[in-house]
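Colleagues,

Please find the record for the two-part complex below.
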Amino acid sequence: MSDHDYQPSSRLGKWFNDRLPLLTLSNHLQEYPTPKNLNYWWTFGGILTFCLITQIVTGIILGMHYIAHADLAFESVEHIMRDVNYGWLIRYVHANGASMFFLAVYIHIFRALYYGSYKSPREVIWIIGMIIYFLMMATAFMGYVLPWGQMSFWGATVITNLFSAVPFIGESITNWLWGGYAVDNPTLTRFFSLHYLLPFLILGLVILHIWALHVPGNNNPIGIDIKKPSNDTVPFHPYIVIKDLFALLLFLIVFAFFVFYSPNILGHADNYIEADPLVTPAHIVPEWYLLPFYAILRSVPDKLLGVIAMFASIFVLVILPWLDTSKVRSAIFRPIYKQLYWFLVADVIILGYMGAMPAEGTYLIIARVATIYYFLHFLVILPFLGNKEKTLDVPLSITEPVLGGYPNHAKTKDKTTIKENL
Amino acid sequence: MRIILKLLFFLTLLINFSTLKVFAAGSPELLKVDWTFKSFFGKFDRASLQRGYQVYNEVCASCHSIKYLSYRNLMEKGGPEFTEEETKAIASNFEVIDGPNSTGEMFTRSARLSDKFVSPYANDEEAKSANGGAYPPDMSVLVKARKGGADYIYSLLLGYEDPPAGIELDDGVYYNKFMYGNKIKMSAPLSDDIVEYSDGTKATTEQMSKDVVTFLMWAAEPHLEQRHKFGFRVIIYLLIISILVYFSMKKIWSRIESKV
């Protein structure tokens, strides 16, 4: 990277930078050569960083007023909503912020799937990303428990009970998680503690995620390796910064719409009823962003196998860089994969829908088919497809219309279609 | 620009999808009211809130608490906005137990503005035993705690009818076509002219239902008006700054031939 020989202009800057090269880092972040053809799907990294910071800041403020006690938690949330100055705003931003965070992370993940961003040499970025995603789900789940409403309580009961499926030691594990023989005050206090801790672990992993990204540099819509810096790249600042900012503002409009005009639409009405261990809600449903996994869990008739299937559905994503055998990254040049990609998107949306429906009759059958297809896509189709698929010719660079190393009229046409597709 | 449209299209799809889910399951179609507090600039109808408080106080409050409201909330901006004197007079009708005093005794005094709404029962057990085993839910966030929200509570209040043939009801159980499972332990609470409105509005069951639901919506979301007002400003601000940033971006990217 060119910024290694960066020298601060002032003497004080040089003195400081020799001792702690923060200025070199800052210079690197500004100069960082970024492919110039990145489309708006690439702006979600910045949006996600914003979401994390928002959650941490609003969360810290909420933590100042919230009381983690089974008898007081629900009341303290109402206290925040009514009596804390702008408490309603902070809480609604935090609650809807979680949904927005997941909306953004799903777009981010599906972008990576479409453009093959998980492939060599970016496997480590991808795996760190998956760990972040997993921690996000854990954090969001525990956060949902804190208001101590009916869905909080029963969601916590259902999810923690999953661990009782572990042979022999299952019951001991659940009791250990609960800190007793049922979900109760000890469960709430430890969930609060962990809910406060995990975002900082996520923050650390995000730093590693970005660090790992800055080693090979960004993938790009046509998925080719590019020379950096070159005609194909632009410095991160101001080109990418302003584009990310613009996308973030559009995202914020959607965010604001939820916060100010339908702050409860993504939640569940039952969570405004205080937790009651003696009354089970008619349908226990997790938050929307966990629904596809909930559907996979319930579509397996055996409890233990269901839990295994649910964790496996995330694990197949972790090992995806080795499951997808195709050398070509971007779906633009993989005609069959492109179709299958949209099948997968539809499959996951169907799974999410089934997760919200009662697990019976037709719903259950559809959920089972969708679960099987999910695993088929990753475990059978992708490894097989990589060797069989006839891919289109890939250009050698973003700016040069030289495709596959030889001039050809058909390829020049390709270039326009590439541009259309970006 | 095409990609932005695509993005917006996806987001709308997603929003539609999630709203569909919320309203998909549910038995009979709820009665729809054109609430003044819906929509972008939605505000509460002040007179309706005041009448709604009267209905709550004279009818509902004999069984249902609103434990998270304080008397002072009644005079706050965005609520029923009773005057301070009116609110103090309302509060003074209730008695709260305070103490201990300097000699260690608990004592009774009339409620002040800072007190929470006095509950009709000392505890949940008393509430249950006085109502045939059914707990009359606290109404603080009731509107938010039921699928269908304000429309649902309104429908429920007007949903009492004779049970269809073949449905046997026990003593103290009533038939309501909007209740989950159709059986409810609360008898029809409202009937025409059960309260006498001081502003001359005719106290029909529909009118009272509308008023009390408006009041309950406010009780659940006391900052709703402020939220709507803020939201509008925030979104306008974001739109303006987005446009400015968009043109700055165009300008910056025009230095290189690639387009954004």
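Chain B touches chain A through 46 residues (CB under 8 Å).

Comments are welcome before we finalize the supplementary table.
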